[in-house]
Design goal:
The structure holds 2 protein chains of 2 kinds. Chain A is mainly α. Chain A has 8 helices and no strands. Chain A is globular and about 55 Å long. Chain B contains 6 helices and no strands. By secondary structure, chain B is mainly α. Classes of the chains: A mainly alpha, B mainly alpha. The interface between A and B is large, with 43 and 28 residues.
Chain lengths: ~180, ~180
């Protein structure tokens, strides 16, 4: 069953079809949310809320449009709100100054995959000094590999703003890398 | 290794290491459970609103209600027009009645005059007075009659000298009274 057909079935409130949709997109949704939030539990909560939002709003979605971008938009908006709340009550990570992550800079184990915890730590350290917008643009552009048109559609930001946020994000992260590695 | 190389190495590593969603089934079940709860609430809400307002979906009832509403609005507009027209005609009748009363009954009592002043106040300017044609004619007739009598008296000198003597005597008498005092 293709995504368009699944979405059509979801529009008619078919819960089995929606289960298939969640099953197909849960990994993708978690990956995006985790790269922005850098926390497993928070990311899972965001994924759940995002899918509930999809279920509630799917009747207004045109199946001919790009579902991934729509899901991206919902997840990114949820993450943006969560980051705003988080800024008010920041979590303290005691090992945030420890840059010694195995598998990143040693050529001997270059193919080693990082686990969730390592990915979270790495992104948190790199993006610690970025603003919320800069972080989101960085994740979507550099880690998710989306084009500026897609990022503009997802975030509602102009291309100039995306370019500027990405430039500043790269500059800040370059300085951090230079300092610590 | 320069700074850019380090940057791209870090980004490349993060890009290739996708966060893995553990307990996917649990997350999917959680989402499905929540949407079932939402659906049940929605169903109850739908049933209630169908029970209360379901009749609005019946085509002929909807048409009849629209017709009745149009009819009532029409009646309201006609009523407003008729009422305004009647108020205007009553105002005109009031002015006519006041004039008629003045013509037919010139010797009105004080209470009737006060009543007329109150009722006809709006019809008169502050520095004007309403005099009926019959009163005016009566006043002119009286004036002409008095003038005619006065002219006749003036022509008769005996009467004039008699009046002058009388006036002189009265004056002298008044002077004598003052001297006695």
């Amino acid at each position: 069953m293709e995504t368009t057909e699944i979405i059509q079935a979801c529009i008619t409130r078919d819960q089995n079809a929606f289960r298939m949709l969640v099953d197909n997109y849960a990994d993708f949704a978690f990956s995006v949310a985790f790269r922005i939030m850098n926390d497993e539990d928070e990311s899972k909560d965001i994924v759940q809320e995002s899918f509930i939002s999809v279920w509630n709003k799917i009747e207004g979605f045109n199946p001919r449009n790009n579902f991934s971008n729509w899901l991206y938009r919902i997840i990114v908006n949820r993450c943006y709100d969560a980051l705003r709340k988080k800024k008010r009550n920041p979590l303290v990570h005691p090992d945030d100054n420890n840059w010694n992550i195995p598998g990143v800079f040693s050529d001997s184990n270059a193919d080693t995959r990082l686990d969730n915890e390592e990915i979270g730590k790495m992104i948190r350290r790199l993006t610690n000094q970025l603003s919320r917008k800069q972080k989101i643009v960085f994740v979507l552009s550099e880690l998710e590999g989306l084009s500026r048109e897609d990022i503009s559609e997802i975030t509602g930001m102009t291309r100039t703003s995306i370019k500027s946020n990405l430039f500043h994000a790269r500059q800040k992260m370059g300085k951090l890398i230079e300092k610590h590695i | 290794m320069n700074n850019d190389d380090n940057y791209f190495k870090v980004i490349g590593k993060l890009k290739s290491s996708k966060p893995v969603l553990s307990d996917k089934e649990e997350l999917i079940n959680g989402v499905m459970q929540k949407i079932r709860g939402t659906e049940q609430k929605t169903t109850v809400h739908k049933k209630l609103s169908n029970y209360l307002f379901g009749w609005a979906d019946v085509v002929w009832i909807r048409g009849a209600m629209a017709l009745a509403a149009t009819f009532l609005i029409g009646i309201f507009i006609i009523q407003q027009v008729v009422i305004t027209d009647r108020i205007n005609s009553l105002e005109k009748q009031l002015v006519k009645t006041v004039n008629t009363l003045q013509v037919q009954e010139p010797d009105l009592g004080i209470m009737q005059k006060v009543f007329l002043n109150v009722v006809a106040k709006d019809q008169m300017a502050d520095d004007s007075i309403t005099v009926s044609r019959s009163d005016l004619e009566e006043m002119l007739d009286s004036y002409l009659e008095l003038k005619k009598d006065y002219d006749e008296m003036k022509e008769n000198r005996g009467v004039e000298s008699y009046i002058q003597n009388k006036i002189r005597q009265n004056l002298e008498k008044e002077n004598d009274d003052k001297l006695d005092l």
